[in-house]
Design brief:
The structure is a single chain. It contains 11 helices and 9 strands. The protein is an alpha/beta fold and 299 residues long. It has a single domain, classed as Rossmann fold (3-Layer(aba) Sandwich), CATH 3.40.50.1820. Strands 1, 2, 3, 4, 5, 6, 7, 8 and 9 form a 9-stranded mixed beta sheet that branches. Helix 1 runs antiparallel to helix 7. The relative contact order is 0.15.
């Protein structure tokens, strides 16, 4: 798929499924971000992608990919905890997921290669100043890992936050518990699932209202595929510098066994820094562990 030519006006659009109430909830969460937020719509092979940026324009670039069902707004806590002081933060709404990206219905991403091509276009549109730190959570980490193993130019560091389908599969009990929310989403089902997965953790009320609004988005078939070939990261081609890799697992994750997944990560990537953060769940990680994530990103 080829990328259309950029245009500052013709590519500025809002997805038809983003209702006024969704926009209000989205903007309320963005209102808690530190400093001014620059919203940019970038043309990509999969349609228009919304990127929310903040932090010093001359700071090292940090690109953040949310998990499935979340939006770029979930990264506000990490930005406020320090990421927007050490980096120029670029948080991305994923194509086909809730947010303000406007996917092209005739060219949806169908494979991991489609998503890595989409991310190439996003990074080109951001025009980063220096090597990029690419950080993803959950499904976003799966996308980031696939992008990294392709040997993407300009990538300096990869940070995977409780990645799913990278080092371990999903627990059947987790999938069964999520099915009602996935098949017939509603605010009640979303909140019930989050309360179960997080152990009743106190979550940002504004973010929860935004998650309620995601139930009104049309269901999109998520891109699935094989696990990324991490051996290509462990043994980069001759003459090419390796990518620094950090992996942080949520100690109370219910989607997989975090300690078993951490062992698999250490075996696959012996030079990576791998850790398990106790006391935090998979879905609450970007919110509840924002200070720890900000310190990790600054290191």
């Amino acid at each position: 798929m080829s990328s259309p030519s950029p245009s500052s006006s013709s590519f500025r659009s809002t997805p038809h499924c983003a209702t006024a109430s969704f926009r209000a909830a989205y903007d309320q969460v963005l209102g808690g971000w530190p400093g001014p937020v620059e919203a940019v719509d970038l043309p990509t092979p999969c349609g228009v992608t919304r990127v929310n940026s903040c932090g010093p324009v001359d700071a090292p670039p940090l690109v953040l990919l949310p998990g499935g069902g979340a939006t770029s707004a979930v990264w506000g806590a990490c930005a406020a905890a320090g990421a927007a002081r050490t980096h120029r933060v670029h948080a991305v709404d994923l194509p086909g997921e809730p947010g303000l990206s406007a996917p092209d219905p005739e060219r949806p991403p169908r494979t991991a290669d489609d998503l890595t091509g989409w991310l190439d276009a996003v990074l080109e549109g951001i025009d980063p100043r220096g090597p990029v730190t690419l950080c993803g959570h959950s499904y976003g980490a799966w996308i980031a890992a696939h992008h990294a193993v392709r040997g993407a130019a300009g990538l300096g560091r990869l940070v995977l936050l409780d990645p799913t389908q990278v080092f371990a599969g999903l627990r059947p009990g987790y999938v069964l518990r999520a099915l009602p929310m996935l098949l017939r989403p509603s605010p009640r089902r979303i909140r019930s699932f989050l309360a179960w997965e997080t152990g009743g953790a106190a979550l940002d009320p504004a973010w929860l209202r935004l998650q309620d609004e995601t139930a009104r988005f049309p269901a999109a078939r998520p891109v699935t595929g094989p696990r990324p070939d991490l051996g290509r990261l462990a043994q980069p081609p001759t003459g090419r510098a390796g990518v620094l890799v950090d992996v942080l697992f949520a100690g109370r994750a219910r989607c997989h066994d975090p300690h078993r997944a951490a062992r698999a990560a250490r075996e696959a990537l012996p030079d990576a820094r791998v850790d398990v953060l106790p006391g935090v769940s998979h879905h609450s990680l970007p919110l509840a562990a924002a200070p720890e994530i900000a310190r990790l990103l600054a290191g």
